[in-house]
Specification:
The complex is a heterotrimer of chains A (117), B (485) and C (449).
Chain A: E1 2-6, E2 15-21, E3 24-29, H1 34-45, E4 48-49, E5 52-55, E6 64-68, E7 72-73, H2 77-86, E8 98-100, E9 110-112
Antiparallel strand pairs in A: 1-2, 2-3, 4-7, 5-6, 6-9, 8-9
Chain B: E1 2-7, H1 11-20, E2 27-30, E3 47-48, H2 59-78, E4 82-83, E5 87-91, H3 97-110, E6 116-119, H4 120-126, E7 136-140, E8 144-146, H5 148-161, E9 165-167, E10 172-178, E11 181-186, E12 189-198, H6 204-211, E13 218-228, E14 239-242, E15 252-255, E16 261-264, E17 268-269, H7 280-293, E18 302-313, E19 319-322, E20 329-333, H8 339-357, H9 381-390, E21 397-399, E22 404-405, H10 406-414, H11 422-429, H12 442-453, E23 472-473, H13 479-484
Parallel strand pairs in B: 1-2, 1-12, 2-9, 5-14, 12-20
Antiparallel strand pairs in B: 3-8, 4-8, 5-7, 6-7, 10-11, 11-12, 13-16, 13-17, 13-18, 15-16, 19-20, 21-22
Helix pairs in contact in B: 1-5, 1-8, 2-8, 10-12
Chain C: E1 4-12, H1 16-27, E2 33-36, E3 52-54, E4 63-64, H2 65-78, E5 83-84, E6 87-92, E7 97-102, E8 106-117, E9 121-123, H3 126-129, E10 139-141, H4 142-150, E11 154-155, E12 159-163, H5 167-178, E13 182-187, H6 197-204, E14 211-212, E15 215-221, E16 228-233, E17 246-249, E18 252-255, E19 259-261, H7 264-268, E20 293-295, H8 306-330, H9 348-351, E21 360-364, E22 368-372, E23 375-376, H10 378-383, E24 386-392, E25 396-405, E26 408-418, E27 424-428, E28 441-447
Parallel strand pairs in C: 1-2, 1-8, 2-5, 8-20, 10-18, 12-13, 12-18, 13-14, 21-28
Antiparallel strand pairs in C: 3-4, 6-7, 7-8, 9-19, 15-16, 16-17, 21-23, 22-24, 24-27, 25-26, 25-28
Helix pairs in contact in C: 1-2, 1-8, 4-5, 5-6
């Protein structure tokens, strides 16, 4: 199986043609430097994303902004947002407070990125 | 039962309404949109013409010159920004000189005072940014500039303070004779009046043709404009006209009372009266035509573009007075340029005729002065310090480009016939009219309107109707909907 | 007459630039510092940038905007540096008299020893693009929409088209998608995006949002709220191609079409501005053409990363503190002088740079635009490395940057790729000038551009 992805390593943005077999990268073409190959291995096998989101808090104009403490698997973004949407944190909240200890079985916490009193 | 029902809340309708209150008359004004001055009155050159460009002997020429004379007192009474900056009509080539001379002769015939011919050197000295090919000009010191939004809002506010009943969001559908005068049918019910004033602008023909034998057809004539940032304030001292062509006065360059420079308009006859969309070709034409006046016209300093439609009649004259075959139905129709200039004269003439028709008695309680508007940007430092000491909201600048304070925004909402929308606030205070075009102040203006009107921010509109700014509170649309799609 | 309060270093703006400048001014020994901020809280635009990607250089970790700002605010508080929020500066004079207003303190004037301009930038509005069409509700700059969503908790629409592929627009495409809205397309006039590759992949590709390069919005529809836009392909001269029109239904159009340094106050103070950057002309110490007035951050030139803003602002803050200190020595203010923690390393004359030695002019050659600083003193050039920052005019692959001193090439450096979305840094070192010592000008150009 082949996949086309864009390398994000530098502004060049190489178009990578990645050959996959049994879920493993067997070849990468189109990259102009080694970073392209390692990005392709990560992105095609185990892509990860940081997730940031907002939680509306009753009685407050400004919603609470939160993020995952580390990147989570890309296919967990939807589940992660669903869990965050259901969170009902109680005030006051300090920046760095854990809002969800383990989001969508990723082992990653969701933390507050601002104070909200 | 009213004495007078006015159709249309533009500068003409509002000026007539105010003028009628010099007599003891019961006046109601119907306006289809959520605010006054949202049609032709808000999208024009903002110029008070001297009166040399109207054909001698026309109603237009007479009311232009008279209206011009009335402006100093009117703007003083209403506290509306107004400047006698003078105007120049410029010839750029030898073959234009006869046309320039004929403008001068028309001006003399129309009674335009104090006109002077300027030669190339005088012209260069007066307007160093003018195209050096300009070889001669006619200078008219009575040429002036005004803030058209504040003028209309000021007229309406003062009319309302004097007892005129304003019906906004009220669309007139039909005017009918009845036993004692007229019935004006609207989408909000019927209004009866002894007299009707047709100040419906682009729709004036519709109502005239319902009652009068003198049929007319309004042709919407679109004009597109550019607005140049006020960092170019002072680039031109006076309004600069080119010599008129058959579609009107051509593209002009003029300072505005707010320090920006206005460039335009095009003149294009269109079908849809409400189509105020700008066009690529129109905007490009404005640039090309204005470059003849101002070769260094800075494209980069463009802050906005807009279009307005003039109510053009084939006869190219104002129709002011009682309609033939319709006693008590008074027209102010075909009010294209110089309609803004003529507005006070049209109002004076119509009000006098109507008062005489109704045998009205004078109104000793008429108060011609509007409560002055406190504008932070024109105050001295000492006045600013005093204003903030008195009301701390003068210390909170909401619109940074135009230096409009929270106090001014709250005030413009609270005045008689106050602002109800973001554009209403913008026209009255200039918040959002500067170089960032509301990028920073829009959220603040929405919040203040919501507080002052006691409604959710979701109900605040740009300009009434369905022009909402915000759609949903966060969290009310679900991520799932997207995820499943 | 209003009495003015003397202040050593006055910082206009409490965003990332102002905060970093204040900390550096303090570290350089400024006696008293005051930050003036127009919003209710410090942090500037970072407060609404709730996405990650900040701090990789400065803190070696990936933070969100509010977290990055909070770290600086904590340092400001720990240092006891005063900041006055909800305060708008309305005037700056050549003599560094600053007038500001606030609800809490009324109209105030400060006589500053040195000023750091850190007012940031604003977004280009629709009007300046001259996009024809109706003036519908539902057209916002991307940053305005970002504020509505992230700080006010409202969605400005359900169905979006985004014009311009600047980073704020890309970031908003993802944010709006997360919030349940539909982003139909991102439309970019140029044949390349001015946004970071990472944002194109993670904000658009991840959600299958199309990026239409070499396209633009050619008409806007909707008498009240927006109902749709017409998008056309453009030719090599960026003119719309007739017959390529496509209609996109949408209730909102976001504009992410460029940022403009906000220099109205600078202009009032008589500061010379550079047409290419939109910001002040500065020398190697980030001093503007008005002595004692320094500039940094997005008011100086639009940056790609906030980390770079913080670094630049720290230098401006330090230089402002030194200038204020030498000014205090030269002209004692009518107040007891606090002890001087450190001496200025430069002669007093240079601190009042009006009379400085003839500076070398730095110019952008082919393929390059918006170089900062625009002036370097000959002494600075041979004393220590000087960092030049600029942007390429387009996407240049396998390019060579050439530095010329009075027309003679003195340094060449290869760059695999240059993209307008990312700032280029070129450090010029004293040893470049062993053979040719420039007296007039330095030019940076890009070969194969």
């Amino acid at each position: 199986m082949k996949r086309e992805i864009t390398c994000i390593g530098c502004p060049l943005g190489c178009s990578l043609e990645v050959s996959l077999a049994d879920g493993q990268v067997v070849a990468v073409a189109g990259n102009e430097c080694p970073r392209g190959a390692s990005y392709a291995r990560q992105e095609c096998v185990h892509p990860e994303r940081m997730v940031t989101a907002l939680i509306p808090v009753p009685g407050r104009t400004t919603p609470l902004s939160v993020r995952t403490q580390r990147p989570i698997p890309k296919d967990k973004i939807t589940a992660c947002l669903r869990v965050i949407a259901a969170a009902r944190p109680s005030l006051p909240i300090r920046i760095g407070d854990v809002i969800v200890p383990d989001v969508a079985d990723t082992g990653v916490a969701v933390i507050a990125t601002r104070d909200l009193a | 039962m009213y004495d007078i029902v006015i159709i249309g809340g533009g500068v003409i309708g509002c000026a007539v309404a105010r003028e009628l209150k010099r007599w003891r008359l019961k006046v109601v004004l119907c306006e289809r949109s959520d605010d006054v001055g949202t049609g032709t009155s808000k999208a024009n050159s903002a110029i008070i013409h001297p009166g040399h460009s109207a054909k001698p002997g026309t109603v237009m020429a007479r009311l232009n010159v008279l209206g011009n004379q009335l402006y100093d007192q009117l703007c003083q009474e209403l506290d509306v920004p107004f400047q006698r900056c003078g105007s120049l009509t410029v010839a750029f080539a030898k073959d234009e000189l006869p046309a320039l001379e004929s403008v001068y002769q028309d001006g003399l015939a129309n009674g335009v005072p104090d006109m002077r011919r300027l030669d190339r050197d005088e012209l260069r000295q007066r307007e160093p940014n003018l195209n050096p090919e300009a070889m001669a000009a006619l200078f008219a010191p009575t040429g002036a500039i005004v803030c058209p939004y504040e003028l209309t809002a000021g007229l309406a506010e003062n009319a309302a303070a004097n007892g005129v009943d304003f019906r906004l969001n009220t669309t007139v559908t039909q005017v009918k004779r009845n036993a004692r005068g007229w019935t004006v049918c609207t989408d909000q019910g019927n209004l009866d009046g002894a007299v009707v004033v047709n100040a419906a602008g682009l729709y004036a023909d519709v109502f005239n043709n319902q009652v009068s034998s003198d049929l007319m057809r309004i042709i919407p004539r679109r004009g597109e404009y550019w607005m140049i940032d006020k960092s170019y304030a002072g680039a031109f001292r006076s309004t600069v006209f080119q010599l008129p062509g058959k579609m009107g006065k051509g593209v002009l360059v003029s300072p505005t009372v707010d320090g920006t420079i206005i460039v335009g308009p095009t003149a294009e006859d269109i079908n849809d009266r409400d189509d105020r969309a700008t066009t690529r070709t129109g905007l490009e034409h404005v640039y090309q035509a204005a470059s003849r006046i101002w070769p260094a016209l800075p494209r980069k300093a463009l802050i906005t573009t807009f279009a307005g439609n003039r109510a053009h009649l084939a006869r190219h004259d104002f129709v002011v007075g009682e309609a033939p075959g319709a006693p008590g139905f008074f027209n102010a129709a075909g009010i294209e340029s110089p309609g803004l200039t003529a507005a006070p004269a049209i109002a004076r003439e119509l009000a006098a005729a109507i008062a005489s028709r109704l045998h009205a008695t004078g109104n000793a309680e008429f108060q011609p002065r509007r409560q002055p508007v406190r504008r932070f940007r024109t105050m001295t430092m000492a006045e600013r310090a005093a204003a903030i000491a008195e009301n701390s909201a003068f210390g909170r600048i909401v619109c940074r480009c135009e230096q409009v304070t929270e106090a001014e925004i709250r005030d413009c909402i609270h005045r008689p016939l106050g602002a109800r929308s973001v554009d209403g606030v913008k026209r009255r205070t200039r918040a959002g009219m500067g170089r960032c075009q509301g990028g920073f102040c829009l959220p603040r203006v929405v919040a203040i309107l919501s507080e002052e009107l006691g409604v959710s921010p979701l109900q605040i509109t740009k300009s009434g109707g369905n022009s909402t700014i915000l759609i949903k509170k966060l969290g009310e649309l679900s991520w799932e909907r997207q995820a499943e799609a | 007459m209003i009495a003015s309060t003397p202040i050593d270093v006055l910082i206009i703006g409490g965003g990332p630039a102002g905060l970093a400048a204040a900390l550096a001014a303090k570290a350089a020994g400024a006696a008293d510092i005051l930050i003036l901020e127009r919003e209710r809280e410090l942090g500037g635009i970072l407060r609404q940038c709730i996405h990650t990607g900040f701090g990789l250089h400065v803190f070696k970790e990936e933070l969100t905007g509010p977290e990055y700002a909070a770290r600086y605010v904590a340092k400001i508080n720990a240092q006891g540096i005063p900041a006055q929020c909800d305060t708008t500066v309305i005037d700056i004079t050549r003599d560094r008299l600053v007038t500001c207003v606030s609800a809490a303190h009324g109209l105030e004037q400060f006589q500053a020893g040195a000023i750091v301009l850190a007012m940031g930038c604003r977004e280009r509005p629709r009007g300046s693009l001259g996009i024809p069409g109706a003036r519908s509700a539902g057209i916002y700059s991307a940053g305005t929409a970002q504020r509505f969503v992230n700080l006010d908790g409202y969605l400005p629409g359900r169905q979006f088209v985004i014009l311009g592929s600047g980073d704020i627009g890309l970031i908003m495409a993802r944010r709006l998608t997360f919030a349940g809205a539909k982003v139909e397309a991102v439309v970019e006039l140029m044949p390349y995006s001015s946004g970071l590759k990472r944002n194109i992949v993670q904000c658009l590709d991840d959600f299958a949002i199309p990026l239409l390069l070499s396209h633009t919005v050619t008409a806007i529809h909707g008498p009240e709220r927006l109902t749709g836009v017409t998008v056309s392909k453009v030719d090599a001269d960026l003119h719309p191609i007739p017959g390529t029109e496509r209609h996109f239904p949408c209730d909102t159009l976001l504009l992410s079409v460029g940022l403009i340094p906000e220099n109205e106050l600078s202009r009032g103070a008589g500061v010379d501005l550079d047409a290419a950057t939109g910001g002040p002309v500065v020398d190697d110490r980030l001093q503007t053409s008005v002595p004692g007035v320094f500039a940094c951050g997005n008011v100086l030139h639009v940056h790609d990363l906030v980390d770079h803003v913080s670094e630049e602002a720290a230098e401006a803050g330090r230089q402002a503190a030194l200038a204020a200190a030498s000014r205090r020595q030269a002209i004692p203010l009518p107040q007891p002088e606090p002890p001087k923690p450190m001496a200025s390393p430069m002669p007093a004359a240079a601190a009042g740079a009006g009379a400085a030695e003839a500076a070398i002019v730095v110019r952008a050659g082919d393929g390059v635009r918006g170089i900062v600083p625009q002036r370097i003193s000959p002494a600075a050039l041979t004393a220590a490395p000087v960092k030049l920052m600029f942007r390429p005019t387009g996407v240049h692959k396998n390019a060579v940057l050439v530095l010329e001193a009075d027309g003679v090439p003195v340094h060449r450096v290869k760059k695999r790729v240059l993209s307008p979305g990312e700032m280029v840094e070129l450090t010029i070192k004293p040893d470049f000038f062993a053979a040719v010592k420039p007296v007039r000008e330095l030019i940076v150009r890009c070969e194969n551009a």
